[in-house]
Amino acid sequence: MLTAQFLLLGAVLFCIGVYGVLARKNAVMVLMSIELILNSVNLNLLAFSVRHGSVDGNTFALYIIAIAAAEVGVGLAMVLLIYRNRRTIALDDLSEMKG
Amino acid sequence: MLAADLLVAQNIGFGIIALLMVVGALRVVTVNNVVHAALWLVVVLSGAAAQYLLLSAEFVAITQVLVYVGAVMVLFLFGTMLTRARIGAENDLNNKNWKIAIPVSLLMLGVMSWVIVDGFSDEKLIDNPGEMTQVPVQLISDDIFGPYLLPFWALSFVLLVAVIGAIVLARKD
């Protein structure tokens, strides 16, 4: 197995996630795309962990999983709050802070 | 090169799972039904757990299944069903200028692939495949509660703040 194949898979998933964040209007779909991005980073960390024979990458991957869980919790709470106040979660309509 | 150095079975497994993950990820960002997108995300996250097993990180793989496939997906489905009047296909899930995102992400993919291929062209993941062993959980816990104790505390506070914040944001007053 080559190091590059895991890194390339991570890069492909990252770019698909970036596309989802940019293209989607529904806030829940944007959160899903962010999960794709975080997973690609985990893949890179674990590949480098094996490459260098160290467990630090595993530790970082576990921390990232915990951070992602917290992020989804707060993000969905905000989406619910926006939905309760606006009756929509389309990100195009949230333009109060546009300036 | 010896046949054992090639790790044929692992490479075939990697290829199949990688293909599943890429197809699933593309479906997540293109399908026009939020519940279907969440189910395709399950495919991608389970495939990631399988890749972690190939990378001999079994503890992270099991944590991935527990946290992502178990908890985060339930949160997503709850979020979808609490904010949607109807469950089903809809055709206004994309921005009005979503086409700009395609060249942006393709450009990023090109640059990143170029850098990766340039830097790691034929570098093997492990020089001696016989040495690839499972990572003992004891080593991970020594790592977490040893040199990385301070980030662990910070992470505990982040989780506490997230729980309190989610309750405060979502409660009716």
Please give a structural write-up.
The complex is a heterodimer of chains A (99) and B (173). Chain A is mainly alpha-helical. In chain A, 78% of the residues lie in helices and 0% in strands. In chain A, helix 1 (3-23) runs antiparallel to helix 2 (27-51) and helix 2 (27-51) packs antiparallel against helix 3. In chain B, 71% of the residues lie in helices and 0% in strands. Chain B folds into two domains: 3-91 and 98-132, NADH-ubiquinone/plastoquinone oxidoreductase chain 6, subunit NuoJ (Four Helix Bundle (Hemerythrin (Met), subunit A)), CATH 1.20.120; 136-173. The mean pLDDT of chain B is 86. Chain B is mainly alpha-helical and 173 residues long. Chain B is built from seven helices and no strands. The interface between A and B is large, with 68 and 83 residues. Chain A: It is a multi-pass membrane protein. Chain A: Belongs to the complex I subunit 4L family. Chain A: It is found in: Membrane. Chain A: Keywords: Membrane, Transmembrane, Transmembrane helix, Transport. Chain A: It holds the Pfam family Oxidored_q2.
- In whole angstroms, the N-to-C terminal distance of chain A is 51 Å
What form of chain B results from the Cα inertia axes? globular
Count the DSSP helices of chain B: 7
Helix content of chain A: over 70%
Judging by the overall fold, what is the CATH architecture of the largest domain in chain B? Up-down Bundle
Q: CATH topology of the largest domain in chain B, anyone?
A: Four Helix Bundle (Hemerythrin (Met), subunit A)
Q: Which structural traits does this protein have?
A:
heterodimer, A: about 100 residues, mainly alpha, Helix Hairpins, 3 helices, B: about 170 residues, Four Helix Bundle (Hemerythrin (Met), subunit A), 7 helices, about 70% helix, globular, membrane (chain A), NUOK/Mnh_C1-like (chain A), oxidoreductase activity, acting on NAD(P)H (chain A)
